[in-house]
Amino acid sequence: MPSNCRLIIHVAILFVLLNANSTTCHTKGLRPKRSSGKQLSVNMTQVQYSEQQFMKWVDFVGSLKHTLFRTAKNKVFPSYTLTVDRNPVYGDFTSIQDAIDSLPMINVVRVVIRVHAGLYKEKVTIPPFKSFITIEGAGADKTIVEWGDTAQTPGPKGQPLGTYGSATFAVNSPYFIAKNITFKFLGAQDTLYDHLGRHYYKDCYIEGSVDFIFGNGLSLFENCHVHAIAPIIGAVTAQGRNSILDDTGFSFVNCKVTGSGALYLGRAWGPFSRVVFAYTYMDNIIIPKGWYNWGDPSRQMTVFYGQYKCTGAGASFAGRVSWSRELTDEEMERTRERIRAAYNRKVMKRNFQVGDLVPRRAVASKNKGKLDPNWEGPLRVVKVLAGGAYELEELNGKMLPRAWNVSNLKKYYP
Question: Strands 143-146 and 118-121, how do they pair?
């Protein structure tokens, strides 16, 4: 989640990428009308209405003039914007959930939902097939989403919701982005449920006490502020990798860990748990042992916990458990080489398709132009052109003004 995103206090937030590697069409869908008060016909349910909207989109795409021998001249814009404001005069919708519900059941076009300043007391869920949604607030201190469910809150059938069901803001679809917004919870344990998929968190503030970043995602936290409010003992992470075959783990780079109480860097929720802190400042609240085996000594043989060039009073490796690692320069270089090799295998030997993300530094202009340094990266492929060129957009939906060749990927290392 890009800049200025804030996650604060704390039952569960769920970010899930389903089928993130699948190819998805990126054609303009049917834009909902401005009014959020559309009345359904007497005999039509919300599901039937969604299906109707989707079939309208199918008919629309089928009416376009396509050809097997040249690029289709589709002049439809690749994205659009909806607004949310508590005052219906100033927005398309008065709640975030209403804006999401207005989208087709299967969404294949980038939709930016701009949420104006205000406190939105609602529980928000994005279903699996509503992809390509961006939630953009007016600022982390201005746009706040708040709800109060806990794992013990009774659900519709009277049974406790559980951790998974208690999320204030739950994302179950791929290609989701949130920025300049706060998700606020009432509680302290299990703040950010990084359940499944690959995620990028940048410039986020995440607060909690016990296992407040947990799940089995493959996630990078960059320039994030992790703040503990543990009254006695807590833990930052509980990474849930369950198999040696999984490709998951948490990486914290250029972050800072502050707060109160005595804090473990992580607990081995999964037997193959993976967490690394690099170039991270740690306040004097880190328990010297650093890591906890979840009460199962056998996990000490299979987890991977490490740190590299961290600073602060809590970063000293003296006293760390023997089964954690202080990574050396040589180990980090080998890691970089593996990343390069994996990157070459997955990216260099295939053509990009609609929906793929491209590193910004890897893009060269077909017209020998230069990338504007203010453009955000990575970039997304909107359209594949002849001759190995692409039309690209920023993650916020802004189109780049010319065609681009992805020609110098070998110079880029993630």
Answer: parallel
Three-class SS of residue 77?
A: coil
Residue in the block written with tokens 């679809």: 173
Q: How confident is the model at residue 116 (pLDDT cuts 50, 70, 90)?
A: very high
Cα 144 to Cα 182: distance, rounded to the nearest angstrom:
5
User: Is the pLDDT confidence value at 389 over 90?
Assistant: no
3.50.50.60, 2.40.50.140, 2.160.20.10, 1.10.3720.10: which CATH number matches 200-327? 2.160.20.10
* Structure tokens that stand for 304 in this block: 């991977």
For residue 316 the two structure tokens come to 């000293």
Output the pTM of the full model: 0.68
Listed by start position, the domains of the chain span 1-30+47-187, 200-327, 350-411
**pLDDT tens per residue across span 284-339:** 999 999 999 999 999 999 999 999 999 999 999 999 999 999 988 888 887 777 66
CATH number of 350-411: 2.30.30
**Cβ distance 133 to 111 under 8 Å?**
yes
Burial of 125 (0-12, 13-18, 19+ CB in 10 A): middle
Task: Say what the alpha-carbon torsion angle 391, 393, 399, 404 is, to the nearest 10 degrees.
Answer: -30
Catalytic residue ranges: 211
In sequence order, which residues have a C-beta less than 8 Å from that of residue 282 and are 6 or more positions away? 256, 257, 265, 310, 311, 312, 313, 314, 315
Q: What is the mean pLDDT of the chain?
A: 77
What are the φ and ψ backbone dihedral angles of 28, each rounded to 5 degrees? -55, 130
Give the span between the Cα atoms of 34 and 47, in whole angstroms: 20
**One-letter amino acid identity for 211?**
D
* SS3 label, residue 299: helix
Residues 246-265: pLDDT tens digits? Answer: 889 999 999 999 999 999 99
Residue whose token pair is 């970089």 = 336
Q: What is the pLDDT of residue 186?
A: 58
Report the Cα 157 to chain-centroid distance in Å: 30
